[in-house]
Amino acid sequence: MSSFCTCTKKGFHSPKPYGSNPALLHIDGVSDDELRDQLFVAREAGCIGIVVELVETQFNGRVLNPSLLSRLGVMCAEYQLLLAVDETLTAIRCGAPFCFQREEYFDVISPDLVFFGKATGSQGIAIGFDGQFVKRFGLLGSSRSRAVRKWQNNFQKPLPTADLIQAMTTIEIAVQGNFVMLSRIIGQAIRDFVLDQAAERGHEVTPPEILGGLESLIFVRKDIAGEMLVMGAKTAGSWIPWVKWLPRLEKDMTRSEVLEEIIASNSNSDATMPYSDDLPQTRTPLLGNNGQSEVAARIRSTSRSVKNQSSRAVSFIVHIFRGGLFSPPTLTYDPLLLLLNHDDQDERNRLTEKWKDNKLQELNFVGVVSALLANVLTSTGSWPNLLPPETTTPWPVRTCWFCGIAFALASVLTAADQTIRLHRMAGHRDGLVLIRQSLRTQDRVLIGTEWKYRPRKMQVYAWQLSVLFLAGAVLCMISGMIFLVWSAVAEDIGRGKGFDDNGKVAVIFTSFALITAIIFALGQTTLYYPVPKGGDIEDSD
Question: Where are the transmembrane segments (predicted)?
Fold first, then answer.
């Protein structure tokens, strides 16, 4: 890792506004005395400060050690040099607004200048009034504003209005989308995925030798990238065996199926896209590489269109029949998500109370219906028998009815158990808090762009068990009746009676059962309404 001293001629008489060429400092494996000697020579040559890259962006993305950065900061203060940090690529992408604000660097240095802007489409310099050198000027309060206005008057190339609007919009999107946190999550997901893919292809997986950079500023070794669908930004030279990848900061980049479509080639030589230094590589750091975005968009568009066409009808039917009895996710999951994460505690308590009351009413209704159904199933022995008196009821009929009784009793017991649990928890002084804690996961997770408590999946299913048991009991009862009537028909045919009265009963009963099922399906279709996910439902006038 190398740092640069920004140099200028003594007396500031350089004909070039940016001074002379920078001097290179060698800091790897050097002692403090050797580093001081280099700084002394640079200062005598007219250097006024040090520019540090926390993440090297021209080779393999090597990350600067915090202890080494601390040494540089101390020596800058000792020689009265400005300490500047180059954040043109690392801003936002490295898990903090600026990379030097990460937890490992935050207490190490206070830079005087920060170079930034490539991510926003414009470039600039941020001045830290609390920087270790600038703070010596004692600029406080209104004096800072006067200093800023004075510097602004010296600008030779003001930023065009269109570029300023674009930059401000980009920053606003990054804040609202929580790109800082996304960069950490996406970076970790992609790095794990690339390592897994490299291991599958027979490479020795040692992260520092395969991957470089920090968070979502990713460097991939060129031979590894060549076996995947990775279109990397061009590095400093064709001889460098690394490519730089700036993945787009969108939450779907954490999903393995999306990464599979974008990166993995499934060892198909026709699908691989080796990196080429001859290809034009442009980048928009917050949105990702152009090549990667365009290729990935085409791949995802084709794949998703095929999947959507093949599963649209099935998905629609499944959603219809998950309404009512089984409840769609937006009517079971979303209420829990809302009551667990509302900002206002009173509103959380109100939503929890509402959920508790509705659930108690639902359990009461399901328990009564299940008890009635269990009573009906236990009385099947007294039903008119279609079989001859000496014939034993076929085992499929008995199996269905006994299973139906078990389902019905399980539904009654589950409804009673959950009702008692809710009443007992609600009787506690902090009952509503207890209910919420029993429903949620222990830690917050990233949902969309916010960290929220997620309802435990098993809790969501557990509170639907009584309804599922009831539906199973109904299905077993109807199946047993169908087996019974057609068993009688089979018995008559075996005795040589042919298609007699029992056959008529079987045909008419089966026809009515099918008609009832069709009407039920039509009713479900009529009652179905696609509730949007997230709980935000607008009431149009």
Answer: 363-383, 395-416, 460-485, 505-523
Binned at pLDDT 50, 70 and 90, residue 299 comes out as very low
Same domain, 125 and 197: no
12-60 pLDDT per residue, tens:
333 444 556 777 888 777 888 888 888 888 888 888 888 888 888 877 8
Q: Cα separation of 116 and 130, whole Å?
A: 18
**Domain presence at residue 315:** no
φ/ψ of residue 214, rounded to 5:
-145, 130
Tell whether 168 and 183 lie within a shared domain. Answer: no
How far does the chain reach from its first CA to its final CA, in angstroms? Answer: 63
pLDDT tens digits along 168-207: 887 888 788 788 888 888 888 888 888 888 887 777 777 6
Last residue of a domain, one of 150, 174, 198: 174
Residue 39: burial class (beta carbons within 10 Å; 0-12, 13-18, 19+): buried
CA distances for 420 relative to 9, 353, 411, 436, 529, angstroms: 83, 16, 14, 17, 33
Contact 311, 266 (CB under 8 A): no
The model's pLDDT over 383-418, given as tens digits with 9 standing for 90+, comes to 777 777 777 788 888 899 899 999 999 999 999 999
Burial class (CB in 10 A: 0-12, 13-18, 19+), 427: exposed
Question: Do 240 and 339 belong to one domain?
Answer: no
Burial 439-469 (b: 16+ CB within 10 A, else e): bbeeeeebeeeeebbbbeeeebeebbbbbbb
Asked whether residue 308 is domain-assigned, the answer is no
The pLDDT value given to residue 313: 57
Question: Does some domain include residue 320?
Answer: no
Same domain for 409 and 514: yes
Write the single-letter amino acid at 335. P
The sheet carrying 242-245 orders its strands as 211-214, 217-221, 242-245
- Euclidean distance between CA atoms 43 and 452, whole angstroms: 52
Report in angstroms the alpha-carbon separations of 394 from 184, 373, 481.
63, 22, 11
Query: For the whole prediction, is pTM greater than 0.90?
Result: no
- Phi first, then psi: what are they for 319, rounded to 5°? -65, -35
- Among candidates 328, 336, 331, which has minimal Cα distance to 456? 336
How many structural domains are present in the chain?
3
Main-chain phi, psi angles of 7, to 5 degrees:
-110, 150
User: Is 327 a residue whose pLDDT tops 70?
Assistant: no
Residue 272 burial (CB < 10 Å; 0-12/13-18/19+)?
A: middle
Mean pLDDT rounded to a whole number for the chain: 76
Note whether 130 and 110 are within 8 A (CB).
yes
For 397, the 3-state DSSP assignment is helix
Q: Which domain holds residue 342?
A: 329-527
Residues near 35 by beta carbon (within 8 Å), at least 6 away in sequence = 25, 27, 71, 72, 75
Span 66-110, pLDDT tens digits? 888 888 888 888 888 888 888 888 888 888 888 888 888 888 888
Buried b (16+ CB within 10 A) or exposed e, 274-286: ebeeeeebebbbb
